[in-house]
Amino acid sequence: MAMIRNYLKIAWRNLRRNKVYSLINILGLSLGLSCAMLILLYVKDEVSFDMFHENVNNIYRVTQEKTINGKLHKNGNSGYLQGPRFKQNVAGIESFVRIQGGAEDIKKDGAIYSQKVLRVDSTFFSIFSFPLLEGNPKTCLKNPNSIIVSEDFAEKQFGRLNVYGETVMIRQDSIFTPFKVTAIAKNSPQNSSIQFDVLLPFKVSVEDANNDLNWYSYFLNTFVVLNPYSDKTDIEEQMQAFYEKDASGAFKSMIERYGGGQDATMGSYLLQPYSTLHLDTERPAQNGLSNAGNPMYSYILSGIALFVLIIACINFINLTIARSIKRAKEIGIRKVVGGDRKQLIIQFLGESFLLCFMAFAMAIIVVLLVLPVFNELSNKALSFSYLLDFRLILAYLGLFLFTALSAGFYPALVLSKYNPVEILYSRFNIGGKNYLQRFLVVLQFSLASFLIIATFTIYRQFNYLTNADLGYDDSNIISISKGYISKDKAKLFKNELLTDVNIVSVAPNNVGHLWTMAKLANEEEINFSYAVIDESYFPELKIPIVKGRNFSPDHPMDASKNIMVNQAFVEKANWENPIGQTVNFFYNQNEIYQVIGVIKDYHFLSLNQKIEPQLFTMISNISFDNFDIKIKPNSATQSLKHIEESFKKIFPLSPYSYVFKDDVNKEAYQAEAKWRKILLFGALLTIFISCIGLFGLTVLSSEKRTKEIGIRKVLGASVSDVMNILSLDFLKLVAIALAIAIPIAWMASNTWLENYPYRIDIGWKMFVITATLVVIIALITVAFQAIKTALANPINSLRNE
Amino acid sequence: MIKITDLEKYYRTEEVQTIALNKLSFEVKEGEFVAVMGPSGCGKSTLLNILGLLDDPDNGSFIFNGIEVSGFNERKRANLRKHNIGFVFQSFNLIDELTVFENVELPLIYTGVKPSERKKRVHEVLEKMQIMHRRKHFPQQLSGGQQQRVAVARAVVNNPKLILADEPTGNLDSSNGNEVMDLLTALNEQGTTIVMVTHSEHDAKFSHRIIRMLDGEKVTENVLV
Ligand SMILES: Nc1ncnc2c1ncn2[C@@H]1O[C@H](COP(=O)(O)OP(=O)(O)OP(=O)(O)O)[C@@H](O)[C@H]1O
Ligand SMILES: [Mg+2]
After folding, report:
1. A33 is in which domain, residue-wise?
2. A241 and A126 in one domain?
3. Residues A338 and A261 grouped into a single domain
4. Tens digit of pLDDT for each residue in A131-141?
5. A9 interfacial to chain B (CB closer than 8 Å)
6. Which terminus of chain A, N or C, has fewer Cβ atoms within 10 Å?
7. What distance in Å separates the CA atoms of residue A363 and residue A693, rounded to the nearest whole number?
8. Is residue A19 in contact with ligand 1, taking CB distance under 6 Å?
9. Quick check: B87 and A332 CB within 8 A?
10. Is A16 on the interface with B (CB under 8 A)?
11. In the sheet where B193-197 sits, what is the strand order?
């Protein structure tokens, strides 16, 4: 006990006496630790996603895999039939729930607004564990006119929480119908793939429920609960066998209608554990599920955390050892008066624990302070209470022990080994080669340089994605979406809009038809997306026509038998002369369409995807669902007023909302923009911690060499000579670090960029900039102390000895 | 109390091998006060470190209190040392981060003495060394003579049987030096065995016997009375 008090006393006095050293150690370590803590929190949240459901280990999503043209397509969605039919015919499936996303028009005090809703089967609350404030989880979804609302929705709609039994007016077809609130649910936890404000009972017509063709529509998510004693593979086999039998007729008629090629297969049904859904990038959470995650971010973050922590630990080790030279005397004396090695090891480990503990306490404060910013950046809602999780606390304790031990053990071993005779008779050679210290400095700066280059790469790539030219002009375009607008209504609306001088042009469209198949003249099949547009579309978006002509009202055939395609389509079809080529599409009913024009490729999908073949038609039997309205610059206020009036006039019962197209595009890369910030921050932090470490080393090394430098100066060394002595050594190490880090970073960057079809070139400039940056920063760090030492009066340092 | 026979110690560096002690033999009886003298580099400090169990001889025998201790491992040596031997150095060697009181208390902590007992004993010895009023100061705040008195206090606080002093007056002026010599003599009179290395014939006169060395070997022994 007394011994420990004595150690603590010494440790504390040492801390106070060596302020620079202590500050650097504690600051660096606490930054490293808070980084690691935040990221632990983030990763824990990611891997614990959806894990709060009591039954989570038995809940699976019904998914499908299919090989088309040699390429494996994975599909996480399903339709009306999969749930009920599998449950009825496969032993081991105990229940199912379908979740379909959508929006409903809700009336509140005479105003109509659009509300996102989920339609779910009545088993919803017995399968998932979403707590209810009020209402019966078993029966609340039984009545088709019931509505379950969240706390947030209740507050918004009624201004209070006790709304059980109240009615909400929801439009069904064209009539507003009362729905009765049968339950109030707590707001969905943030780490849930299912987020809802409003739940409505699932709706399916008798015809749809009995139509076998519905095996082949995928627009919702089906979850099943397996008997805990059943075998997943066995159930998948049963499902597959049943599907092949039950859907064989439907499959045949599908092939007849849509084609499908010789090697068309029925595909196979599989079960995906619910717990793995959040981080699945191949079958992302959609159609009613939200918060799709990406494990890449967890990896990047964990990488940063690890780097920062390692660097902080290296600082700790290096500084402790470097400073130990000043403490050699104390160690020698302790040995002379009877301390043995074990006691000394305990003492130095104890000091390391004390420092770590202080760093740890500071780290917790830092985490609490930056948590809101971190949430904002990482799109999470992590809170303090979240920190108090049992396993997380264990993880933090582990982190603490790991840091304290790894940072303290080596110095403790080294220090306790000093020979007291050598120390006390000043025969102790404190210069030494310090290979370990050099190695650690190299390692530290290699990690930092790697991180800088990686950050540069990711930053530039994300920047590119955020600012890339999409191939069309999205400025001054207001988009209005409204489902199922017939061609006639569209014309009416368009003409109404164009009565205002501020409206430049109006382009109704429906571009949401992805992945269709058609036959070319030579019987070859081709996959593509198609869009229904009118003649204003390309001019309005400034998409150039590279061959042939645009659609025109002057050509009656344009509205029926003529089509346009993009360059990717021409390439895929292998046409030398695209104009006049024919395509046989739409349900294989032998309707032949003729190509009249080719447009330049533009990014109609995300920049993360390659531009695929695209086909444009004006045929009248497909409705529009969106209007892109080009307005004069700086006329938004007047234009929006006119647009709203026109909308209310033509579609009086529909909710009105609008977005600016360039905002939407920007938002699409919001995640990237945020991650850009996080990474930049991480890299700056790493460099900062590395530099304070280097600074500390220079301080200690110049302290250690004050006598030598004093003597050199007395003998005539100039300031720059002394600077060289002090800084050259470190700069050499930084140069070695760069030589190691650059090739590795180059390879890693390349590998990462392969994920993106549209990407930046790495180029040599980035490496030059990084190298210069690192050297300059290191030079400034080292030079600061070196100059101070070099300018000091040698008499002072010599007299001290 | 001490009996060394044919003690040898070499120092090997990359190029040369130095013989620091060459077949050195002598004996020190309990209660004796012995001075070791000789030119610089003849091996006096080396000898003292071996006697103090800080260092291991390369050859020869060293019997301490009837036990052969050459070849003891570090833990055993540390254990023997902390109960039996006190050190005084030319350069004081106090821990700068600890106060006078704490410096003197340190050996008692390592031998596991209870706090109340520790306080009593530290106060006693500080009183005896006339440094009590400075007990809360740090070493840098003391004069050389005061620091050496603290070092002597630390060396004797555990009531060791043997005190080894390596040029204890080397850094002190003559009056401070004499004070320290008086302290050592007083301790010797109370029964503590003392081996002291010195360059000063004046200081050597305080001892009972002078061992003179040259190049690691004993040359003469003068017994003073
Ligand atoms: N660690 C060491 N490495 C190499 N040689 C050493 C070492 N320690 C001592 N020596 C050599 O051993 C010899 C004896 O040294 P020692 O310190 O015992 O002499 P000393 O008699 O105490 O001298 P002084 O009166 O100057 O203190 C010297 O020649 C010295 O150079
Ligand atoms: Mg000596």
Report:
1. 1-49+302-432
2. yes
3. no
4. 999 999 999 99
5. yes
6. N
7. 18
8. no
9. no
10. no
11. B85-88, B162-166, B193-197, B33-37, B209-214, B217-223
pLDDT tens digits, residue range A480-493? 988 778 888 889 99
Q: Give the residue with greater pLDDT, A586 vs A705.
A: A705
Distance between CA atoms of residues B21 and B43, nearest Å: 6
CB contact under 8 A, A342 and B89: no
Rounded Cα distance between A778 and A774, Å, is 6
Which H helix or E strand runs over A593?
strand A592-599
Contact A66, A401 (CB under 8 A): no
Q: Which amino acid is at A14?
A: N
State chain A's mean pLDDT as an integer.
Answer: 84
Contacting residues of B for A17, CB less than 8 Å apart? 97
Residue at which a domain ends, from A276, A291, A314 = A276
Q: Quick one: A265 and A323 in the same domain?
A: no
Binned at pLDDT 50, 70 and 90, residue A263 comes out as low
Are A654 and A524 contained in the same domain? yes
Distances (CA, A) of A14 to A23, A72, A323, A348: 12, 64, 11, 12
Q: Which of B76, B79, B96, B64 is nearest to A333 (CA)?
A: B96
User: A-chain residues within 8 Å CB-CB of B87?
Assistant: 336-337
Which tens digit of pLDDT belongs to each residue from A450-500? 888 888 888 888 888 877 888 899 889 999 988 778 888 889 999 999 999
CA distance A801 to A403: 36
Protein fold of B2-95+144-223: Rossmann fold (3.40.50)
The finding on whether B20 has its CB within 6 A of some atom of ligand 1 is: yes
**Is the Cβ of A422 closer than 8 Å to some Cβ of chain B?**
no
Q: Which residues of chain A make contact with B44, given a CB cutoff of 8 A?
A: none
Least Cα separation, residue A416 to chain B (angstroms)? 12
Tokens standing for A487? 């061609």
The verdict on A230 and A250 lying in the same domain is yes
Q: Are residues A82 and A122 in the same domain?
A: yes
Residues A20 and A82 in one domain: no
Confidence of residue A90 (pLDDT cuts 50, 70, 90): very high
d(CA A657, CA A112): 11
Q: Do A337 and B107 touch (CB under 8 A)?
A: yes
Same domain? For A207 and A348 the reply is no
**C-alpha count within 13 angstroms, C-beta hemisphere, residue A482:** 23
